[in-house]
Amino acid sequence: MNSVNKDKYRFLEGIIYSAFVVVVLWGVYLWNQSRGFDLNAYGMHPKSIEGIYGIFTMPFLHSGSSYEHIMNNSFAVLVMLTTLVYIYREIALKVFLLSWLFTGVLTLFIAKTGTNHIGISGLTYAWVTFIFVSGLLRWDRKLMGVSMAMVVLYGGLFWGIFPIEKNMSWEGHLSGALSGV
């Protein structure tokens, strides 16, 4: 397979994986909404035994109060996960799983007791941070370009790691960013 076809295949593979994750996000969201369930109760409950389950469930749960939360996360997953698989195919699964685990565990320990954390944005913070830091550390022109594109596209994410916006899991965002590093 020549390099052009290989690049096309890797890009398509990244889109397929990220689209699958987005379909699961929307499937859980729509099922939760249509059935009147409160699956969000199974989010991350910091500093509790129940919170351990939240490590695994938190990314797939989204607020039903508006479509904005899941729409923003869906777009970020499509961009970040496609980029991760395209550039780092050999280690993408490892990065995906470790960022999921580390983000969840860190959130479990640093977030405020009595809160409930939901959403996949912690993972998107992990992926964008990983892509950015990896590009800088490898000092590769192509990766540096991708890293700079991440800063331009998602530079505003930086503010999400601070307790500025009410009802936003800045702890999950911070945990994701630390996991990505």
Could you provide a short overview of the structure?
The protein is mainly alpha-helical.
Q: How does this structure look, described?
A:
The chain is mainly alpha-helical. It is 70% helix and 0% strand. The protein has seven helices and no strands. It has helices spanning 3-35, 49-57, 68-87, 89-110, 121-138, 141-154, 170-180. Helix 1 packs antiparallel against helix 3. The radius of gyration is 16 Å and the shape is globular. The protein starts with a helix and ends with a helix. The model has no long low-confidence stretch (mean pLDDT 89).
**Rg:** 16 Å
- Gap between N and C termini, in Å? 33 Å
Report helical residue fraction: over 70%
Total beta-strand segments: 0
Helix/sheet category: mainly alpha
Shape: globular
How would a textbook summarize the main sheet? Answer: none
Q: What share of the residues does DSSP label as strand, in percent? A: under 5%
On the 0 to 100 scale, the average pLDDT is: 89
Count of individual helical segments: 7
Extract low-pLDDT stretches.
Answer: none
SSE series: HHHHHHH
List the helices and strands and how they pair.
Layout (H helix, E strand, L loop, with lengths): L2 H33 L13 H9 L10 H20 L1 H22 L10 H18 L2 H14 L15 H11 L1
Helix pairs in contact: 1-3, 2-4, 3-4, 3-5, 4-5, 4-7, 5-6, 5-7
Q: Main attributes?
A:
single chain, 181 residues, mainly alpha
